[in-house]
Amino acid sequence: MAANFEYYKIFYYVAKYQNFTLAAKALLSSQPSVSRCMQALETELGCRLFVRTKRGVSLTAEGEQLYKYVAPACEQIFKGEENIGGTLGYQNGSVYIGVTETALHCFLLEKLSSFHRQYPGVRLKLTSGTTPNTLADLKAGKTDLAVVTTPIREDSHFRVTLVKECQDILAGGSNYSYLKGKKVPLSEVQQYPFVSLAENTMTYALYKEFYASHGLILKPDIELATADLMVPVIRQGLGVGFIPRELVKKELEEGSIVEIEIEEKIEGRHICMVEDRQKPLSVAARHLIRLLKGKEPA
């Protein structure tokens, strides 16, 4: 195959923006040049990669298949170029971080603020998602480290460091104030509309097991993608749900959310930092990891 990396790099940008003109701008090239390169690539591969649309182009089935391989390869190369630029200092390096919403608001934001004050030239690139998705991105090499909440599945690729303890509480809106100060059995909690994270999250799995250990079945009335979305839903009185106390500290003080004590013990959880043992890291990423572990002054 005679196609060189430059063709695939151009293909990556055209597929990403689905537009030849925008790809040309990103590449500091011209639209005709980009079009010629893509025609040459299609000729060499013996298939069509794009079809024209009113707004630009879209990928053919063959183009979609090729993009699945080209995108992660290009992103890894771009990251490598950025990190090499940052190894001699902290002027133009980047650190890619995967984080869950709870870990972001209850721990990471404050640490990143401190890191940014020390190294203002380092670009911090965050992606948020569920714990399974965040760890999958780390394993695939899309991020340098992950900051998530327990529980997590064991994996020999990962080095896990517990960085902060957090405690979930059962919370309800002010319309549940009549339960404040009482000890409510979990079986009674089932009488109220229940707000939960989605079934594909580790938090859902944790509370499904928690309910089962007490002979009960978890039946959420409202399922949400992230923990921070639970706050306004609970505050509006749409149901009760288990949520980290620190995430609703302000609302508890204001009284717009109340803590509902239950008879059964809720085990404490941890925010943890996860590294890929096999992945080399830039100087900037290593210093951020040291800060998160408490081994570097904030």
UniProtKB/TrEMBL annotation:
Gene3D superfamilies, sorted:
3.40.190.290, Winged helix-like DNA-binding domain superfamily/Winged helix DNA-binding domain (1.10.10.10)
GO MF annotations in UniProt? DNA-binding transcription factor activity; transcription cis-regulatory region binding
Boundaries of every HTH lysR-type domain copy: 9-60
Q: Which InterPro entries match?
A: LysR_HTH_N, LysR_subst-bd, WH-like_DNA-bd_sf, WH_DNA-bd_sf
- What keywords is this UniProt entry annotated with? DNA-binding, Transcription, Transcription regulation
| Protein origin, superkingdom | Bacteria
Q: Which Pfam families does the record associate with it?
A: HTH_1 (PF00126), LysR_substrate (PF03466)
Q: Which PROSITE patterns match?
A: HTH_LYSR
Give the family, as the similarity comment puts it. Answer: Belongs to the LysR transcriptional regulatory family.
Put simply, this protein is called LysR family transcriptional regulator
Q: What is the lineage of its organism?
A: Bacteria, Bacillati, Bacillota, Clostridia, Lachnospirales
